[in-house]
Write a structure and sequence with these properties.
261 residues, D-Maltodextrin-Binding Protein, domain 2, 6-stranded mixed beta sheet, disordered N terminus, Transporter substrate-binding domain-containing protein
């Protein structure tokens, strides 16, 4: 009888484990926020925060990565529950419910150290070639400047690692400036000493410091309830010091300290 009881209890535990619901999540490579390293391992500041919160919600995170535009449209169609991490705008709010802030972000211009470029308004950069990524939600002033042809805009597609292509273009003098989230390009420069030796950035934010969020697809079943559940779990996650520990691990204080407003 004891053996039968043990087998029955183990069967119940196995069933409970099997019933843990997977929640499909998507992200695009954007180190050090979320990315796949050279060994194929997913990691990053928001990757650890989002998957940690989702796990504490009682789900098993099922995470995939796609290029940005594909990731966005896949999640917007309800083929994934959560897309992370990205900024808000009015169009995106039509398709996603946004969580509380995951990280602050700031876009700046990177340049060759040999070039003494300064700017107060974007019109000051009229004679410069500036690289940017198609489909990114830059500050409205920058997008207006592109539309008004206030400088020489050089668009690149949002492929797997567009920031690497921008830095390569800058290194090879194909452009004079690139717009990049400060910690993303600093991450890539730290991993490429040749580039780091000749490239730096202008410590002036393009528009105000903004914030990254996770977005819950409105096309996902019971998305409003999922948002409420995420927000509650995220507050507990922060109060327990888990978010702070992740930020410390990735030395993410740079997100705001490196920008002179």
């Amino acid at each position: 009888m004891a053996k039968i009881t043990i087998i029955f209890l183990c069967t119940i535990l196995a069933c409970q484990s099997a019933l843990t619901e997977e929640l499909p999540l998507l992200f695009a490579n954007f180190p050090p926020v979320n990315y796949v390293d050279e060994q194929g391992k997913m990691k990053g500041i928001s990757y650890e925060i989002i998957t940690g919160v989702v796990t504490e919600m009682g789900y098993q995170p099922n995470v995939r990565t796609l290029p940005w535009k594909r990731a966005y449209h896949t999640a917007a169609q309800g083929k994934a529950a959560i897309l992370f991490t990205f900024t808000q705008n009015e169009q995106r709010k039509k398709e996603f419910y946004f969580t509380d802030m995951i990280l602050p972000i700031a876009d700046v211009f990177f340049k060759k150290k040999s070039k003494q470029i300064q700017w107060e308004t974007l019109a000051d950069l009229a004679n410069y070639r500036i690289g940017y990524t198609d489909g990114y939600n830059y500050h409205s002033s920058f997008l207006r400047a592109i539309a008004n042809k206030e400088f020489i805009a050089r668009k690149s597609p949002a492929l797997e690692h567009p920031e690497l292509q921008h830095l390569k273009n800058l290194f090879n003098d194909r452009v004079d400036l690139i717009i990049c989230e400060v910690n993303v390009c600093l991450f890539h420069l730290r991993n490429n000493p040749r580039w780091q030796a000749v490239i730096d950035y202008i410590p002036k934010a393009i528009g105000p410091i903004r914030s990254f969020h996770a977005g819950i697809s409105k096309a996902w079943p019971n998305s409003e309830a999922l948002l409420k559940q995420f927000k509650a779990a995220y507050q507990k996650f922060k109060k327990a010091g888990k978010r702070k520990a992740i930020l410390t691990k990735y030395k993410a204080a740079e997100l705001t300290n490196l920008i002179k407003q």
